[in-house]
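User: I've been going back and forth on whether these two constructs are worth ordering. Before I decide, could you fold them both?

Assistant: Sure. I'll take them in the order you sent them. The first construct and its structure tokens:
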Amino acid sequence: MIAAAASLAPVPAFKPGHNVNPQKKFHLVFSLLMGLMMIFLMTFVITAVNVGFSANFLQTWAKAFVVAYIVGVPVIFFLAPLARKLTARALKMPMP
């Protein structure tokens, strides 16, 4: 009876000790952090330029940030490798 109950226990989708390719993990975390920093600053500056520091500045900026982050992170994730290749080619350097 106990063995049958144990076999019905849910299997975790991600095992903590599971080896994920470190390069892929690095690229994903890099994209998330680069997106956070760049999009935070750019949406802040562009919102300030367009609407000024009005009463609804934070609400307007937060909306712009969320939309830009949702769009920007996948763009960074997929275009960063291309940017690295083009940079290496332009500088006549081997790919890092």
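The second construct, handled the same way:
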Amino acid sequence: MSTSIPGSPAALRRRLRALTAAPAYPWVTGAALTAGAAVELVEFPGSVTNASAILVSTASLMWRHSFPPVALVTVAAGLLSFGADTSLSIAVMISGLVGCYVLGRHRVLHPALLVTGGALGALAANLWHILSWARDDRLPYVPPLGNAGSLGLFAEGFGLCAVILGAVSMGDAVRAREETRRERALAQEQLIAMERREAAEAERAAIARELHDIVSHSVSMIAVQAESATYTTPDLSPQARDGFQQIAGTARASMAELRRLLGVLRTPQQDEAAATAPQPTLAHLDELLDQHRTVGGSAELRISGERVPLAAVWELSAYRIVQESLTNARKHAPGARAIVELGYRKDRLTLRVTDDGPGPPPPGGGGGASGHGLTGMRERATLVGGSLTAGAGQDGGFCVEAELPW
């Protein structure tokens, strides 16, 4: 979701949606409309039926959010007040429009039933007016139904039908649009969750392949040393010689099992790449930073504490975290200056990669702390019992911090 400029139409729409969603909104607006109706009745008094219907029509709107079917009472009372008097009060016009909108917005009934019922109510009120005009001689000439000019007597009924149709249709359109927006947001969340799961699975597979390379190297060294000991040490007893042979055999069996398990994860291209490229360590960070500089980036390496050799898993995890952090810097902040800080502590290795770019995107804007690269970095930190955080830096830009205990 992109940010909007204060005062823009998008920002105004968001403020209006927040206002209308407030719990007090229907009570305040319903009470205000009822008060306006009371003032209007004082200025233009009518029959008891008309006054009661007007007040019921406006007051019932106070419950339109908590109980939307009450809008049926709103519209029915409005039509009754119009039928009881030939004039339509302003308060009833507003309450009727809002009531029809609420009925369509919450789909209390099917829109066709709502429009049909409203049209019949409008026609009934119109017919009652026609009868009163003929009875009270309010018009000099009321043509009989079917004669020339009689269709004009239903003008107010046609107008009311058009208004009811428009208000119900608008409410139904808003409901359909919000349902579409919710479905789209849900589908997007599911897609993002699926992509994150796939990214995490791919990263775990990559970690498993790299660990295989590390472990297989160590196990193969055990096998070679155990076998060579039987030849380089002439004074070995038969029991010791058999023990070395068992160690070598167990190591070879472990190697075979590792290869079999890894066959589920590897592809032929990955096998070829793994056979020709040794796993990197923190000793290769200078080369990694040189590669970053050759593509237009600026990078600096800072090391604090006494540098000590770490186990291969820690070395590889730390290297990959730095590598992915620099990749993200090139992708989201091209040309920014990156600083890589390594801290050798008593029981842990701390990593901090910062840049002076524009920082993380707004929530929902993609990339940043929700990107797949950071998913992989968190997997690698978790692999060695560590943690990783990513987000805006204290001085701006983007910052990745990790702690890898040993």
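Notes on the second construct follow. The first strand starts at residue 298 and ends at 304. The chain is about 65% helix and 10% strand.
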